[in-house]
Amino acid sequence: MARPAVGTIIRRPTKQGTSFALRVSYGGTKPVIQLGGSWEGWTEERVQAEREYIAAQMARGEWLPPATQRQSVETPVAASVSFQLFASGWLARRKPRVEAKTYADYHWRLRAGMDHFGAYRLDEIDASVIDDFVDGALRERDAIERAAADGTPLTETVSDKHGRSYVRRRRGLDRSSINKVIAGVRIVLKDAQRRGLISVNPAADPECLVSTPRPSRSFLEAEQIEELLHAAADIEKGHRGLDWQKVAFIRASSASNLELSRELGVSDVLVSKVRRRLLWNDEAAPRNRNDIPRRAILATLVLAGVRISELCGLVGEDVDLASGRIRVRRDVTKTDAGERVIPIVPALREALVDHRATHHYGGGDFVFGTRTGGRNSPDNIRARIVAGAHQRANERLADASRPGIGHLTPHTLRRTFASLLAESGVSPRRAMYLLGHTDPKLTMSVYQQVLDLSAEGERTLASVLGGDLVEVGLMLSGRSQNGALAVVNRHAIDTQASSAALTRSQESR
To answer: Structure pTM?
Structure first.
Protein backbone atom coordinates (compact mmCIF):
# COMPACT_ATOMS: atom_id res chain seq x y z
CA MET A 1 0.00 0.00 0.00
CA ALA A 2 1.40 3.37 -1.06
CA ARG A 3 2.31 5.77 1.70
CA PRO A 4 -0.02 8.79 1.68
CA ALA A 5 1.39 12.19 0.87
CA VAL A 6 2.55 14.15 3.88
CA GLY A 7 1.13 17.51 4.88
CA THR A 8 -2.29 18.96 5.49
CA ILE A 9 -3.79 21.34 2.96
CA ILE A 10 -4.97 24.63 4.48
CA ARG A 11 -7.58 26.59 2.53
CA ARG A 12 -8.52 30.14 3.46
CA PRO A 13 -11.25 32.05 1.57
CA THR A 14 -10.41 35.69 0.74
CA LYS A 15 -12.06 38.44 -1.28
CA GLN A 16 -9.90 37.52 -4.28
CA GLY A 17 -10.35 33.77 -4.04
CA THR A 18 -8.94 30.85 -2.07
CA SER A 19 -5.48 31.01 -0.47
CA PHE A 20 -3.58 27.69 -0.18
CA ALA A 21 -0.93 26.54 2.28
CA LEU A 22 0.55 23.23 3.56
CA ARG A 23 1.24 22.19 7.17
CA VAL A 24 3.89 19.42 7.41
CA SER A 25 5.61 17.56 10.25
CA TYR A 26 9.39 17.89 10.41
CA GLY A 27 11.72 17.21 13.32
CA GLY A 28 9.01 17.55 15.92
CA THR A 29 7.74 20.81 14.45
CA LYS A 30 4.87 21.60 12.10
CA PRO A 31 5.96 24.43 9.80
CA VAL A 32 3.40 26.02 7.47
CA ILE A 33 4.35 26.46 3.82
CA GLN A 34 2.41 29.28 2.13
CA LEU A 35 1.77 28.40 -1.52
CA GLY A 36 -0.38 31.13 -3.06
CA GLY A 37 -3.89 32.10 -4.08
CA SER A 38 -6.32 31.03 -6.79
CA TRP A 39 -5.88 34.47 -8.39
CA GLU A 40 -2.21 33.55 -8.86
CA GLY A 41 -3.01 30.31 -10.64
CA TRP A 42 -3.09 27.90 -7.71
CA THR A 43 -5.69 25.12 -8.05
CA GLU A 44 -6.49 21.97 -6.10
CA GLU A 45 -4.55 19.91 -8.65
CA ARG A 46 -1.51 22.18 -8.46
CA VAL A 47 -1.58 22.16 -4.64
CA GLN A 48 -1.78 18.34 -4.62
CA ALA A 49 1.14 18.13 -7.04
CA GLU A 50 3.20 20.43 -4.78
CA ARG A 51 2.24 18.28 -1.80
CA GLU A 52 3.45 15.12 -3.57
CA TYR A 53 6.68 16.85 -4.58
CA ILE A 54 7.46 17.89 -0.98
CA ALA A 55 6.62 14.38 0.22
CA ALA A 56 9.09 12.89 -2.28
CA GLN A 57 11.80 15.34 -1.17
CA MET A 58 11.21 14.43 2.48
CA ALA A 59 11.37 10.72 1.67
CA ARG A 60 14.79 11.23 0.04
CA GLY A 61 15.98 13.43 2.91
CA GLU A 62 16.42 16.41 0.58
CA TRP A 63 13.76 18.69 2.01
CA LEU A 64 14.60 21.45 4.48
CA PRO A 65 12.09 23.67 6.28
CA PRO A 66 11.95 27.31 5.14
CA ALA A 67 14.00 29.68 7.23
CA THR A 68 11.18 32.22 7.19
CA GLN A 69 7.65 32.31 5.96
CA ARG A 70 8.63 34.83 3.26
CA GLN A 71 11.21 32.46 1.80
CA SER A 72 8.68 29.62 1.65
CA VAL A 73 6.24 31.82 -0.24
CA GLU A 74 8.61 33.39 -2.70
CA THR A 75 10.59 30.45 -3.98
CA PRO A 76 7.77 28.39 -5.54
CA VAL A 77 5.72 31.44 -6.68
CA ALA A 78 8.56 33.35 -8.30
CA ALA A 79 9.63 30.30 -10.22
CA SER A 80 6.20 29.44 -11.57
CA VAL A 81 3.74 32.36 -11.68
CA SER A 82 3.35 34.01 -15.06
CA PHE A 83 3.33 37.73 -15.71
CA GLN A 84 -0.29 37.48 -16.85
CA LEU A 85 -1.44 35.91 -13.58
CA PHE A 86 0.52 38.28 -11.38
CA ALA A 87 -0.51 41.37 -13.40
CA SER A 88 -4.17 40.31 -13.22
CA GLY A 89 -3.95 40.10 -9.44
CA TRP A 90 -2.11 43.41 -9.24
CA LEU A 91 -4.74 45.13 -11.39
CA ALA A 92 -7.53 43.70 -9.26
CA ARG A 93 -5.83 45.06 -6.13
CA ARG A 94 -5.39 48.50 -7.67
CA LYS A 95 -8.99 48.89 -8.87
CA PRO A 96 -10.55 49.99 -5.56
CA ARG A 97 -7.56 52.22 -4.76
CA VAL A 98 -7.46 54.45 -7.85
CA GLU A 99 -9.92 56.51 -9.88
CA ALA A 100 -11.72 54.99 -12.84
CA LYS A 101 -9.61 56.85 -15.44
CA THR A 102 -6.36 55.71 -13.81
CA TYR A 103 -7.59 52.11 -13.69
CA ALA A 104 -8.60 52.29 -17.37
CA ASP A 105 -5.12 53.57 -18.23
CA TYR A 106 -3.45 50.71 -16.32
CA HIS A 107 -5.78 48.22 -18.02
CA TRP A 108 -4.95 49.54 -21.50
CA ARG A 109 -1.18 49.45 -20.91
CA LEU A 110 -1.18 45.88 -19.64
CA ARG A 111 -3.61 44.65 -22.29
CA ALA A 112 -1.47 46.17 -25.05
CA GLY A 113 1.62 44.31 -23.83
CA MET A 114 0.03 41.08 -22.62
CA ASP A 115 0.38 39.18 -25.90
CA HIS A 116 4.14 39.52 -25.59
CA PHE A 117 4.81 39.47 -21.83
CA GLY A 118 1.88 37.39 -20.57
CA ALA A 119 3.32 33.89 -21.00
CA TYR A 120 6.71 34.68 -19.41
CA ARG A 121 7.37 33.86 -15.77
CA LEU A 122 8.26 36.87 -13.64
CA ASP A 123 11.87 35.77 -13.29
CA GLU A 124 12.16 35.18 -17.06
CA ILE A 125 11.51 38.80 -18.05
CA ASP A 126 14.80 40.54 -18.69
CA ALA A 127 16.19 43.26 -20.95
CA SER A 128 16.15 40.99 -24.01
CA VAL A 129 12.44 40.20 -23.55
CA ILE A 130 11.65 43.93 -23.38
CA ASP A 131 13.86 44.66 -26.41
CA ASP A 132 12.02 41.99 -28.40
CA PHE A 133 8.72 43.69 -27.57
CA VAL A 134 10.03 47.09 -28.67
CA ASP A 135 11.51 45.75 -31.92
CA GLY A 136 8.33 43.85 -32.76
CA ALA A 137 6.10 46.88 -32.09
CA LEU A 138 8.26 49.13 -34.27
CA ARG A 139 8.27 46.60 -37.13
CA GLU A 140 4.50 46.22 -36.90
CA ARG A 141 4.04 49.99 -37.01
CA ASP A 142 6.28 50.29 -40.08
CA ALA A 143 4.36 47.51 -41.86
CA ILE A 144 1.01 49.19 -41.16
CA GLU A 145 2.25 52.55 -42.42
CA ARG A 146 3.79 51.03 -45.58
CA ALA A 147 0.56 49.18 -46.38
CA ALA A 148 -1.46 52.37 -45.95
CA ALA A 149 0.94 54.30 -48.19
CA ASP A 150 0.60 51.59 -50.88
CA GLY A 151 -3.19 51.93 -50.84
CA THR A 152 -3.81 48.50 -49.28
CA PRO A 153 -4.31 49.26 -45.57
CA LEU A 154 -4.21 46.36 -43.14
CA THR A 155 -7.48 45.68 -41.33
CA GLU A 156 -8.69 43.78 -38.28
CA THR A 157 -12.05 42.64 -36.91
CA VAL A 158 -12.93 43.96 -33.46
CA SER A 159 -15.98 43.98 -31.21
CA ASP A 160 -17.48 46.97 -29.43
CA LYS A 161 -18.83 47.02 -25.87
CA HIS A 162 -22.21 45.79 -27.14
CA GLY A 163 -20.69 42.69 -28.71
CA ARG A 164 -21.09 43.90 -32.30
CA SER A 165 -18.21 43.12 -34.66
CA TYR A 166 -16.85 45.46 -37.29
CA VAL A 167 -13.74 45.83 -39.45
CA ARG A 168 -11.33 48.70 -38.94
CA ARG A 169 -7.81 49.62 -39.94
CA ARG A 170 -5.07 48.10 -37.84
CA ARG A 171 -3.49 50.47 -35.38
CA GLY A 172 0.12 49.99 -34.44
CA LEU A 173 1.67 51.41 -31.30
CA ASP A 174 3.53 54.67 -31.79
CA ARG A 175 6.72 55.42 -29.87
CA SER A 176 4.94 57.16 -27.04
CA SER A 177 2.51 54.25 -26.62
CA ILE A 178 5.37 51.74 -26.60
CA ASN A 179 6.94 53.61 -23.71
CA LYS A 180 3.59 53.66 -21.89
CA VAL A 181 3.33 49.87 -22.16
CA ILE A 182 6.87 49.44 -20.82
CA ALA A 183 6.00 51.79 -17.96
CA GLY A 184 2.97 49.61 -17.16
CA VAL A 185 5.17 46.50 -17.08
CA ARG A 186 7.65 48.35 -14.88
CA ILE A 187 4.94 49.21 -12.33
CA VAL A 188 3.82 45.56 -12.09
CA LEU A 189 7.38 44.26 -11.79
CA LYS A 190 8.09 46.87 -9.13
CA ASP A 191 5.31 45.36 -7.05
CA ALA A 192 6.74 41.87 -7.65
CA GLN A 193 10.14 43.14 -6.54
CA ARG A 194 8.59 44.72 -3.43
CA ARG A 195 7.10 41.36 -2.53
CA GLY A 196 10.46 39.66 -2.99
CA LEU A 197 9.41 37.60 -6.02
CA ILE A 198 12.17 39.03 -8.21
CA SER A 199 15.44 40.69 -7.28
CA VAL A 200 15.83 43.07 -10.25
CA ASN A 201 13.28 45.09 -12.25
CA PRO A 202 14.60 45.11 -15.84
CA ALA A 203 11.91 47.53 -17.05
CA ALA A 204 13.33 50.23 -14.75
CA ASP A 205 16.34 50.63 -17.06
CA PRO A 206 15.90 53.84 -19.14
CA GLU A 207 17.68 52.10 -22.03
CA CYS A 208 14.53 50.02 -22.56
CA LEU A 209 12.58 53.08 -23.74
CA VAL A 210 12.49 54.42 -27.28
CA SER A 211 13.19 58.02 -28.16
CA THR A 212 10.15 60.17 -28.86
CA PRO A 213 10.02 63.49 -30.69
CA ARG A 214 9.11 66.55 -28.67
CA PRO A 215 5.33 66.87 -28.97
CA SER A 216 4.00 69.71 -31.06
CA ARG A 217 1.40 71.31 -28.83
CA SER A 218 -1.25 73.06 -30.87
CA PHE A 219 -2.67 76.48 -30.01
CA LEU A 220 -4.42 79.28 -31.87
CA GLU A 221 -3.22 82.73 -32.84
CA ALA A 222 -5.47 85.74 -32.27
CA GLU A 223 -6.93 85.82 -35.79
CA GLN A 224 -7.58 82.05 -35.68
CA ILE A 225 -9.54 82.43 -32.44
CA GLU A 226 -11.59 85.18 -34.07
CA GLU A 227 -12.31 83.10 -37.18
CA LEU A 228 -13.25 80.04 -35.12
CA LEU A 229 -15.83 82.02 -33.15
CA HIS A 230 -17.14 83.64 -36.33
CA ALA A 231 -17.41 80.19 -37.91
CA ALA A 232 -19.46 78.93 -34.98
CA ALA A 233 -21.76 81.94 -35.32
CA ASP A 234 -22.11 81.27 -39.06
CA ILE A 235 -23.19 77.68 -38.42
CA GLU A 236 -25.72 78.79 -35.80
CA LYS A 237 -27.13 81.36 -38.18
CA GLY A 238 -27.47 78.75 -40.91
CA HIS A 239 -29.25 76.36 -38.59
CA ARG A 240 -31.61 79.05 -37.36
CA GLY A 241 -32.52 80.32 -40.80
CA LEU A 242 -35.79 78.43 -41.32
CA ASP A 243 -39.44 79.28 -40.89
CA TRP A 244 -42.61 77.35 -41.75
CA GLN A 245 -42.78 78.82 -45.23
CA LYS A 246 -39.25 77.61 -46.00
CA VAL A 247 -40.01 74.22 -44.43
CA ALA A 248 -43.00 73.79 -46.76
CA PHE A 249 -40.84 74.87 -49.69
CA ILE A 250 -38.16 72.29 -48.84
CA ARG A 251 -40.66 69.45 -48.59
CA ALA A 252 -42.35 70.39 -51.86
CA SER A 253 -39.12 70.92 -53.83
CA SER A 254 -37.48 68.28 -56.01
CA ALA A 255 -34.07 69.97 -55.86
CA SER A 256 -31.18 68.28 -54.08
CA ASN A 257 -30.33 68.95 -50.45
CA LEU A 258 -27.17 70.77 -51.47
CA GLU A 259 -29.00 73.02 -53.94
CA LEU A 260 -31.63 73.93 -51.37
CA SER A 261 -29.02 74.60 -48.70
CA ARG A 262 -27.25 77.07 -50.98
CA GLU A 263 -30.50 78.75 -51.99
CA LEU A 264 -31.78 79.12 -48.42
CA GLY A 265 -28.44 79.73 -46.74
CA VAL A 266 -28.69 76.77 -44.36
CA SER A 267 -26.82 73.49 -44.01
CA ASP A 268 -27.63 70.54 -46.26
CA VAL A 269 -27.83 68.35 -43.12
CA LEU A 270 -30.64 70.55 -41.81
CA VAL A 271 -32.46 70.30 -45.16
CA SER A 272 -32.15 66.51 -45.05
CA LYS A 273 -33.57 66.31 -41.52
CA VAL A 274 -36.48 68.56 -42.44
CA ARG A 275 -37.30 66.36 -45.43
CA ARG A 276 -37.16 63.23 -43.30
CA ARG A 277 -39.44 64.95 -40.77
CA LEU A 278 -36.89 64.70 -38.00
CA LEU A 279 -37.40 68.43 -37.38
CA TRP A 280 -40.17 71.02 -37.70
CA ASN A 281 -43.15 68.69 -37.30
CA ASP A 282 -45.13 70.43 -34.56
CA GLU A 283 -46.55 73.66 -35.95
CA ALA A 284 -47.74 74.74 -32.54
CA ALA A 285 -44.18 74.81 -31.22
CA PRO A 286 -41.77 75.48 -34.07
CA ARG A 287 -38.57 75.13 -32.03
CA ASN A 288 -35.54 74.39 -34.13
CA ARG A 289 -33.72 71.54 -32.38
CA ASN A 290 -30.52 72.37 -34.25
CA ASP A 291 -30.21 75.55 -32.18
CA ILE A 292 -26.96 74.37 -30.57
CA PRO A 293 -24.92 77.05 -28.71
CA ARG A 294 -21.75 76.50 -30.69
CA ARG A 295 -20.30 79.94 -30.19
CA ALA A 296 -20.97 79.97 -26.44
CA ILE A 297 -19.37 76.53 -26.04
CA LEU A 298 -16.24 77.42 -28.02
CA ALA A 299 -15.97 80.79 -26.29
CA THR A 300 -16.13 79.08 -22.88
CA LEU A 301 -13.41 76.61 -23.89
CA VAL A 302 -11.01 79.22 -25.26
CA LEU A 303 -11.77 82.23 -23.02
CA ALA A 304 -12.23 80.38 -19.71
CA GLY A 305 -9.85 77.45 -20.31
CA VAL A 306 -12.10 74.80 -18.78
CA ARG A 307 -11.53 71.15 -19.56
CA ILE A 308 -14.13 69.63 -21.83
CA SER A 309 -15.38 67.36 -19.04
CA GLU A 310 -15.73 70.41 -16.80
CA LEU A 311 -17.71 72.23 -19.48
CA CYS A 312 -20.14 69.33 -19.79
CA GLY A 313 -20.70 69.38 -16.01
CA LEU A 314 -21.48 73.11 -15.65
CA VAL A 315 -24.95 73.87 -14.32
CA GLY A 316 -26.80 77.17 -14.20
CA GLU A 317 -25.75 78.12 -10.68
CA ASP A 318 -22.08 77.69 -11.66
CA VAL A 319 -22.28 80.55 -14.18
CA ASP A 320 -22.82 83.82 -12.30
CA LEU A 321 -23.30 86.43 -15.02
CA ALA A 322 -24.06 89.18 -12.51
CA SER A 323 -20.68 88.93 -10.78
CA GLY A 324 -18.90 87.66 -13.88
CA ARG A 325 -17.60 84.34 -12.58
CA ILE A 326 -17.63 80.67 -13.57
CA ARG A 327 -17.28 78.18 -10.72
CA VAL A 328 -15.76 74.77 -11.44
CA ARG A 329 -16.91 72.32 -8.77
CA ARG A 330 -14.77 69.51 -7.36
CA ASP A 331 -17.16 66.81 -8.57
CA VAL A 332 -16.70 67.76 -12.25
CA THR A 333 -12.92 68.25 -12.27
CA LYS A 334 -9.86 65.97 -12.08
CA THR A 335 -8.19 67.01 -8.83
CA ASP A 336 -8.67 69.19 -5.77
CA ALA A 337 -6.71 71.92 -7.52
CA GLY A 338 -9.26 71.84 -10.34
CA GLU A 339 -11.88 73.44 -8.08
CA ARG A 340 -11.64 77.12 -8.93
CA VAL A 341 -13.43 80.35 -9.87
CA ILE A 342 -12.70 81.85 -13.30
CA PRO A 343 -13.48 85.50 -14.14
CA ILE A 344 -15.65 85.97 -17.23
CA VAL A 345 -14.00 88.29 -19.76
CA PRO A 346 -16.33 90.72 -21.61
CA ALA A 347 -16.53 88.77 -24.89
CA LEU A 348 -17.35 85.54 -23.08
CA ARG A 349 -19.99 87.29 -20.99
CA GLU A 350 -21.69 88.54 -24.15
CA ALA A 351 -21.80 85.01 -25.57
CA LEU A 352 -23.12 83.53 -22.31
CA VAL A 353 -25.78 86.21 -21.91
CA ASP A 354 -27.04 85.51 -25.43
CA HIS A 355 -27.02 81.77 -24.72
CA ARG A 356 -28.95 82.24 -21.46
CA ALA A 357 -31.56 84.41 -23.18
CA THR A 358 -32.03 81.80 -25.92
CA HIS A 359 -32.08 78.58 -23.89
CA HIS A 360 -33.55 79.66 -20.50
CA TYR A 361 -31.78 77.03 -18.37
CA GLY A 362 -32.37 76.91 -14.61
CA GLY A 363 -29.94 76.90 -11.71
CA GLY A 364 -29.76 73.11 -11.59
CA ASP A 365 -29.89 72.56 -15.35
CA PHE A 366 -26.84 71.82 -17.46
CA VAL A 367 -25.65 75.00 -19.18
CA PHE A 368 -24.63 73.14 -22.33
CA GLY A 369 -26.89 70.11 -22.07
CA THR A 370 -28.32 67.89 -24.78
CA ARG A 371 -31.58 68.53 -26.60
CA THR A 372 -33.46 66.73 -23.83
CA GLY A 373 -31.63 68.61 -21.07
CA GLY A 374 -29.26 65.78 -20.14
CA ARG A 375 -25.54 66.03 -19.59
CA ASN A 376 -23.60 66.41 -22.79
CA SER A 377 -20.63 64.15 -23.54
CA PRO A 378 -17.08 65.20 -24.49
CA ASP A 379 -17.26 63.05 -27.63
CA ASN A 380 -20.41 64.86 -28.74
CA ILE A 381 -18.79 68.26 -28.20
CA ARG A 382 -15.71 67.23 -30.16
CA ALA A 383 -17.56 65.65 -33.08
CA ARG A 384 -20.54 67.98 -33.49
CA ILE A 385 -19.21 71.36 -32.41
CA VAL A 386 -15.41 71.60 -32.42
CA ALA A 387 -14.95 69.63 -35.66
CA GLY A 388 -17.72 71.52 -37.51
CA ALA A 389 -16.46 74.95 -36.46
CA HIS A 390 -12.90 73.90 -37.34
CA GLN A 391 -13.93 73.02 -40.89
CA ARG A 392 -15.95 76.21 -41.36
CA ALA A 393 -13.15 78.38 -39.94
CA ASN A 394 -10.66 76.90 -42.39
CA GLU A 395 -13.07 77.63 -45.24
CA ARG A 396 -13.27 81.24 -44.12
CA LEU A 397 -9.49 81.49 -43.81
CA ALA A 398 -8.99 79.93 -47.26
CA ASP A 399 -11.40 82.45 -48.79
CA ALA A 400 -9.27 85.21 -47.25
CA SER A 401 -6.05 83.55 -48.54
CA ARG A 402 -4.77 83.03 -44.99
CA PRO A 403 -3.25 79.89 -43.42
CA GLY A 404 -5.77 77.47 -41.99
CA ILE A 405 -5.99 75.98 -38.52
CA GLY A 406 -4.13 72.69 -38.24
CA HIS A 407 -4.69 70.25 -35.40
CA LEU A 408 -7.60 71.41 -33.22
CA THR A 409 -8.98 69.76 -30.09
CA PRO A 410 -10.63 71.12 -26.94
CA HIS A 411 -7.19 70.92 -25.31
CA THR A 412 -5.87 73.19 -28.07
CA LEU A 413 -8.33 75.80 -26.86
CA ARG A 414 -7.28 75.24 -23.24
CA ARG A 415 -3.62 75.79 -24.16
CA THR A 416 -4.67 78.91 -26.06
CA PHE A 417 -6.34 80.25 -22.91
CA ALA A 418 -3.10 79.69 -20.98
CA SER A 419 -1.26 81.71 -23.63
CA LEU A 420 -3.87 84.47 -23.40
CA LEU A 421 -3.18 84.63 -19.66
CA ALA A 422 0.51 85.14 -20.35
CA GLU A 423 -0.13 87.83 -22.96
CA SER A 424 -2.50 89.60 -20.55
CA GLY A 425 0.18 89.81 -17.87
CA VAL A 426 -1.31 87.26 -15.48
CA SER A 427 1.31 85.86 -13.09
CA PRO A 428 2.32 82.18 -13.42
CA ARG A 429 0.91 81.35 -9.99
CA ARG A 430 -2.45 82.90 -10.83
CA ALA A 431 -2.43 81.17 -14.23
CA MET A 432 -1.77 77.87 -12.46
CA TYR A 433 -4.87 78.47 -10.31
CA LEU A 434 -7.12 79.46 -13.23
CA LEU A 435 -6.09 76.33 -15.14
CA GLY A 436 -6.54 74.03 -12.15
CA HIS A 437 -2.90 72.90 -12.05
CA THR A 438 -0.77 71.93 -9.07
CA ASP A 439 2.59 72.61 -10.71
CA PRO A 440 3.43 76.03 -12.25
CA LYS A 441 6.13 74.36 -14.36
CA LEU A 442 3.42 72.46 -16.23
CA THR A 443 1.56 75.70 -16.83
CA MET A 444 4.66 77.43 -18.17
CA SER A 445 6.29 74.65 -20.18
CA VAL A 446 3.30 72.83 -21.64
CA TYR A 447 0.37 75.19 -21.80
CA GLN A 448 1.69 78.70 -22.28
CA GLN A 449 2.72 79.10 -25.91
CA VAL A 450 4.13 82.26 -27.48
CA LEU A 451 1.59 84.15 -29.56
CA ASP A 452 2.71 86.16 -32.58
CA LEU A 453 1.28 89.56 -31.70
CA SER A 454 1.91 92.36 -34.14
CA ALA A 455 0.03 95.64 -33.79
CA GLU A 456 -2.81 94.13 -35.80
CA GLY A 457 -2.64 90.98 -33.71
CA GLU A 458 -3.01 92.99 -30.50
CA ARG A 459 -6.09 94.72 -31.89
CA THR A 460 -7.56 91.36 -32.93
CA LEU A 461 -6.84 89.88 -29.50
CA ALA A 462 -8.49 92.85 -27.78
CA SER A 463 -11.54 92.26 -30.00
CA VAL A 464 -11.55 88.56 -29.13
CA LEU A 465 -11.36 89.28 -25.39
CA GLY A 466 -13.78 92.19 -25.56
CA GLY A 467 -11.46 94.72 -23.92
CA ASP A 468 -7.99 96.17 -23.59
CA LEU A 469 -5.29 93.63 -22.72
CA VAL A 470 -4.28 95.52 -19.57
CA GLU A 471 -7.86 95.73 -18.29
CA VAL A 472 -8.60 92.11 -19.12
CA GLY A 473 -5.34 91.03 -17.51
CA LEU A 474 -6.27 92.79 -14.27
CA MET A 475 -9.70 91.19 -14.37
CA LEU A 476 -8.20 87.72 -14.83
CA SER A 477 -5.73 88.46 -12.05
CA GLY A 478 -8.66 88.81 -9.66
CA ARG A 479 -8.48 92.57 -9.11
CA SER A 480 -11.52 94.82 -8.96
CA GLN A 481 -12.69 96.86 -11.90
CA ASN A 482 -11.85 100.09 -10.05
CA GLY A 483 -8.38 98.80 -9.39
CA ALA A 484 -7.98 97.92 -13.05
CA LEU A 485 -9.01 101.40 -14.17
CA ALA A 486 -6.66 102.96 -11.63
CA VAL A 487 -3.74 101.00 -13.05
CA VAL A 488 -4.71 101.97 -16.60
CA ASN A 489 -4.93 105.65 -15.62
CA ARG A 490 -1.63 105.43 -13.76
CA HIS A 491 -0.02 103.89 -16.83
CA ALA A 492 -1.33 106.76 -18.97
CA ILE A 493 -0.09 109.37 -16.44
CA ASP A 494 3.36 107.75 -16.27
CA THR A 495 3.55 107.73 -20.06
CA GLN A 496 2.62 111.42 -20.24
CA ALA A 497 5.12 112.32 -17.49
CA SER A 498 7.91 110.46 -19.29
CA SER A 499 7.06 112.23 -22.54
CA ALA A 500 7.05 115.65 -20.81
CA ALA A 501 10.41 114.94 -19.15
CA LEU A 502 11.91 113.95 -22.49
CA THR A 503 10.63 117.18 -24.07
CA ARG A 504 12.13 119.35 -21.29
CA SER A 505 15.44 117.53 -21.64
CA GLN A 506 15.55 118.20 -25.38
CA GLU A 507 14.65 121.89 -24.90
CA SER A 508 17.38 122.38 -22.29
CA ARG A 509 19.95 121.23 -24.82
So the answer is: 0.59
